[in-house]
Amino acid sequence: MSDAPNKKEESLFRAPPLAEQERMIEALLFASAEPVSLSEMEARMPHGSDPAEALVLLRKRYEGRGVQVAKVGDAYAFRTAADLGFLMAREQVEQRKLSRAAIETLAIVAYHQPVTRAEIEEIRGVSVSRGTVDQLIELDWIKFGRRRMTPGRPVTYVVTTEFLDHFGLENARDLPGLKELREAGLLESRPPDGDPEEGPDGDRDKDTGDMFDDDAEAAIDDELLDDDDL
Amino acid sequence: MSDAPNKKEESLFRAPPLAEQERMIEALLFASAEPVSLSEMEARMPHGSDPAEALVLLRKRYEGRGVQVAKVGDAYAFRTAADLGFLMAREQVEQRKLSRAAIETLAIVAYHQPVTRAEIEEIRGVSVSRGTVDQLIELDWIKFGRRRMTPGRPVTYVVTTEFLDHFGLENARDLPGLKELREAGLLESRPPDGDPEEGPDGDRDKDTGDMFDDDAEAAIDDELLDDDDL
Amino acid sequence: MSEAGQPANTDDWDSVTARREAEALIVDVDGFEGPLDLLLTLSRTQKVDLRKISILALTEQYLAFIEQARQLRIELAADYLVMAAWLAFLKSKLLLPPEPGEEGPSGEDLAAHLAFQLERLAAMRDCAAKLMARDRLGRDRFVRGAPQAMTTNRKITYTAGLLDLMQAYARIRTKDDFRPYVMDREKILTMEEALDRLRNLVGYMGEWADLMSYLPDGWTTDPKARRSATAANFAAALELTKAGKVEIRQSDTFEPIQLRRKDT
Fold first, then answer.
1. Partners of residue C58 in chain B, C-beta under 8 Å
2. Chains touching C, CB cut-off 8 Å, 3+ pairs
3. ipTM score for this prediction
C-alpha cells in the first residue's frame, strides 16, 4: 500500500527507460481510435518521457512489418501495410442453382434473340417477372438489344459474350436445334406438330442474323443511353 | 479477366514464405477489434498458408511488447499489455456495475459449466432471477449450452468467447483455482465421501472429470449450432 | 468429519459482540441473498475453517436469528422460514439417537452436506472475486481503437450448364404436347434405355455434372420412377465409364455422383 505513492513519486523524477516508453507508445497508438500527436503522448505518458525519441525506435521496429507507424498530419497511427490491403476484403463465392424461370427465360433469349419480353412470355406461357430478367442482366448473361420497330418500340434482349463464355459456345447459333435435342434424347415427348426444323436458325433467320454483327452491337449501346423505360 | 484464374492456380502451388504469412496475420489481427479465428485467417490468406505456424512466430515476436497476441478460444487478437492500462484512461470503458447475484452466477457458470439454472440455484441457495441471467447474456458473457439429458431437458449455460476475451483467459480450463476446486471436490454436487479409503477423488471421479474434458468442450460448440431454443 | 454431533457451543453466541453482530444482521436482512448466504455469514462468527465448522452451533445461531427477527416483527421471506424448519429437523436428528430401522440419510450426512454447500458457496464467492480482479478488457487491456473494416463480399454465382439450358428449352417447346413417358412397365427405366439415352448425351457433357441432372424429364418427381431412373442411369454411367466414354466421381459417401465426358 505504502509502496504505490513512492513509486509514482519516483517516476516524477525518473522517466521510464526508452524501451519502456516505446512499449507505451505502441499500446497508445494501438488502442487509440484517432491518430495520437506527440504532445498527447507526452501528456499521457509518465513525466519526463520523450515520445519523439521512443517513436523513432517504434517506427523502425515496424519497418517492413504487416502494420506500420504512419504519420497522419502531426499525429501518428498504426496502418496496415499497403501491400496487405487485399486481406481486408474477402470474397466468398456461393454457388446457387438458377431458378427454373430464369433458366427458361435464358434459354428463350438464347434461342430466339433478339426477343421482347412479350415474346418470352408468349413462348413460356407465363408472365416473366422483372426480377428474373434483372437477375439475368446482372449475371451479365443477357443484355438489351435493339428496340423492335413495332408499335411501342419494345426493347429486346440478346445474350452476351459472357453468356457464350460461360456455356462454352462460340455463337448462340451453335445451340442445337429442336431436332438435335430430340436426337440427343432431350425431348422425351413426341415431336411437336410445328416445324420440325425449327431451331435458332429457323424462320427468324433475318432477325437473328443481324444480331451479332457490329451494327447491332453499336446500336445496343445507344439504346441504353436513351432508354427511359428502365 | 482471363488472368485471374491463372493467378489463383499459381498460388495453389506456392504458399507465401512463412515470414510473409506472419506479416499478414499481424495485419489481420491489428485490423480487427474482435479475435480472429484460424479458419478466418486461412480464408483471407493466400491458398496454402498455414496461419497456425506463422502465429507461433508472431506471438513470440510480441512477447513483452506493448501489445500482445492473446489467444481466445480458437481465435487470436492483439490486446494491450495489462501493465499499461493506466495510459488508456481515455479508452476506458465504464464497466457496468454488476449485482452480487450476477457476479456469483457468472462465476458458477464459468466453473461449473455446462450448468442448469437449478444447479446455479442449488449452489447459491436462492432462486436466480430472470434479470440476472438476461444481464449476463446481454453482456455476451454466457450463452445457452446443450440441453441436459435429464427429465425436463433443462437448458444449460456456458461461458462465451467474449467472456474469455474480457477476462483474459485462453479457455475455460484456465480459470483461476479451477484445479484446486476440483481436487477439493467443490465442483461436485455432493460432498466428498467421508470414507477415508476413497478420498475426495473417490467414485465420483467420472462425474467431475468430464466437466471440462474435450468431449464437453466440443459439445458446447455443437450446441450453438443445433440449439433451437435461441 | 464434522463436529455436528457434539453439543452446541453457544458461549460465543451469548457474548455481547455476537449479539451486536446478529442485530446488525437482522437490520440488513434485505441484503442477504437467501438463507444459505445468511448461514455463510453466521458461520464466520465461529472463526474456524469452514471444513471444521460446527453445524449444530450454526443451526442454533440461525434459529436464534429467525426468532429475533420474529420478535422484531421483521418479515422474512418464506425461504428463510423453510430453512429454519429444516434446520430444526436437522438439529433433532443430530441430538437424538436414530430410530431403529429409520431410512434415509443420517443427521451427520445432512450436516456434512450443509457444510459442503457452505464451503462450495464460499469457494464460488472467492472465484467470483478473483475473476472480477483479473486484467479486464476495457479496463486494463484494450482492443484496437481504430479497427479496420474487414469485409466479406458474398458473391453468388449461379450455376447452369448447357444441358440445363437445352433441357429448359426443350421443356418449353414441347410443353403443349408433353406427355409422360409411357412404357410397358410403368415407372421402370431399363438400363438399356438409360444407356442409349446417356450415350447420346455424352457429347454435351462438358464439366462435372450431377448424375441426377441426367434423369429424363418426367422421371424425377414420382419416387418410384425416380428410383428406377436413378439406378438405371447409374448403371449406364458405369457402363460408359467402363467403355472409357465418361469419367465418374463421388467425393464422399452419399455425396452426388458426378459425370463428365472423357476427353480422348
1. none
2. A, B
3. 0.62
